[in-house]
Write a structure and sequence with these properties.
This protein is of the alpha+beta class. It contains 17 helices and eight strands. The chain has two domains: 156 residues, NADH Oxidase; 178 residues, no CATH class. 40% of the residues lie in helices and 9% in strands. The model has no long low-confidence stretch (mean pLDDT 95). It binds cobalamin and iron/sulfur cluster (2 copies).
Length: 384
């Protein structure tokens, strides 16, 4: 039987548990910890459905497959009574867009310049969950992008910030640089107020997008987003979009970095989220030399490892093609015989842009007749 909500003992217990949680969150390095109800995002299922119906999730079939659980936390877990949303600041120490002026360098997005945030945050959430469950005698589950949970609308409902026109959560305190995580529990807790939208007439993020990935404010078409294309999308990347990638090889920060609310942002406190020195401005030339084993070693513990060497080198070759640097021609040529069709195809594309026309024609005479893969043949033919 449910306890009476206005019973002073019930209120005190709720207050104590909420205070305990906030202290634990701070002790684990979270910058924000606020609470909402499982039914706090009634508009989310319809918006998610619209996103999927329009095909904007691209090849992320898991979004479609989990749509009902994703849209409503109560479908994911019917016993959930409170949802605790956590935010961890990963603010960079410089403007990541500055790297775009250095075309020989590769740009890895801020979130991926050190340890995988999933590992960092999940470990901390588990610590909190264990201690909280023991204290509250309640059931608990924790998620950080590891289950079908709509973290952004839930975080907005809990008041960590609001969903900006770039669709990510913006905080008045930390700007756009926040990772999110959640704890679902059967315990009743004190509920926080949501945050209102502070975008106003600004549209800086929409205008900043190099690939025009926002069909409307607050809506994204992942199929055009460099983050999706470099991380989630396997195989051939639309040739019309490649030039806009510039030197971005893993993710993209342009819409986040453009947000004026970043002026209040602070640098990440968590050492594991501060950029590794060698990933701040790495050489494209070096990345073109990575084989599978060196790739795995170099990116051990990093989220970059997730996409595998072939997709990674595919992305690096796009950056090489955009670099205008003839010095990269030999490294690109050496990848024309690579075991991966994705790599061979992008080596052709890069060379079409970097090599002298006579050299490119000679390479095509040599390689095209023995190329069996249709997508790579198409790259050679495209440049005729
Ligand atoms: C799928 C996904 C992606 C996809 C799709 C992006 C997207 N915006 O959905 C891709 C691969 C492109 C991607 C990219 C990035 N991602 Co991502 N991604 C996710 C994931 C797994 C699910 C997001 C989701 O549910 N999308 C479906 C859409 C429909 O949901 P939505 O964006 O909330 O859509 C809302 C709006 O469209 C809004 N809406 C629609 N119409 C209207 C109208 C009005 C008036 C309003 C107010 C709102 C509104 O309502 C919808 C429902 O709330 C989450 C983790 C999670 N489990 O939540 C991380 C997550 C969103 N990603 C994150 C990050 C950091 C990124 C990148 C910055 C990484 C990078 N540097 O490359 C980029 C940013 C690109 C961008 N502008 O969004 C963080 C964002 C943190 C934050 N502060 O918000 C998350 C939360 C992961 C985490 N745990 O920290 N991501
Ligand atoms: S992450 Fe980059 S490509 Fe994706 S929407 Fe933002 S600015 Fe556009
Ligand atoms: S850049 Fe402007 S429109 Fe975009 S999220 Fe920030 S405040 Fe909102």
């Amino acid at each position: 039987m449910d306890e009476p909500q206005n019973d002073p003992k019930v209120i005190k217990r709720r207050t104590d548990l909420t205070g305990f949680l906030r202290k634990e969150a701070a002790a684990q390095g979270f910058d924000l910890c606020r609470i909402t109800l499982p039914d706090a995002i009634p508009q989310a299922p319809e918006r998610l459905q619209h996103f999927v119906d329009a095909g904007r999730h691209g090849t992320m079939a898991w979004m479609e497959e989990t749509i009902e659980r994703r849209g409503d936390p109560r479908v994911l877990w019917s016993d959930v009574r409170s949802i605790v949303m956590f935010g961890m600041n990963y603010g960079p120490d410089d403007d990541p867009r500055a790297l775009q002026a250095l075309p020989d360098k590769a740009a890895i997005s801020v979130y991926a310049r050190n340890r995988d945030y999933h590992d960092v945050i999940k470990g901390r959430l588990k610590e909190i969950a264990t201690r909280f469950a023991a204290r509250a005698g309640a059931d608990v589950k924790v998620f950080v992008d590891t289950a079908p949970v709509m973290e952004k609308p839930l975080a907005a409902a809990a008041g960590l910030g609001w969903q900006g026109k770039h669709t990510n959560l913006v905080s008045r305190e930390f700007g756009s640089w926040l990772f999110l995580g959640s704890l679902f529990t059967t315990a009743e807790l004190e509920i926080d107020e949501g945050e209102r939208d502070h975008c106003g007439s600004c549209r800086a993020c929409l205008d900043a997008c190099p690939t025009d990935a926002f069909p409307a404010p607050y809506q994204i078409d992942a199929r055009r987003c460099i983050s999706y294309l470099t991380i989630e999308h396997k195989g051939v990347i639309d040739a019309a979009l490649r030039p806009a990638f510039g030197n971005r090889i893993y993710g993209c920060d342009d819409c986040l970095a453009a947000c004026p609310w970043n002026k209040f942002a602070a640098e990440a406190r968590e050492m594991k989220l501060k950029a590794r020195e060698d990933l701040k401005a790495p050489d494209i030339a070096f990345f073109l030399t990575l084989d599978d084993s060196r790739f795995r070693t170099y990116f051990s513990g990093s989220p970059v490892k997730r996409i595998g060497r072939d997709r990674f080198v595919r992305n690096v070759l796009i950056a090489a093609g955009n670099s205008g640097s003839a010095a990269l021609v030999p490294a690109c040529e050496s990848l024309l015989g690579d075991g991966s069709a994705d790599v061979r195809g992008m080596a052709v594309w890069a060379l079409a842009r970097l090599a002298l026309p006579d050299r490119f024609a000679a390479l095509r005479r040599e390689h095209l007749p023995r190329e069996a893969d249709d997508t790579v043949r198409a790259e050679w033919m495209m440049e005729i």
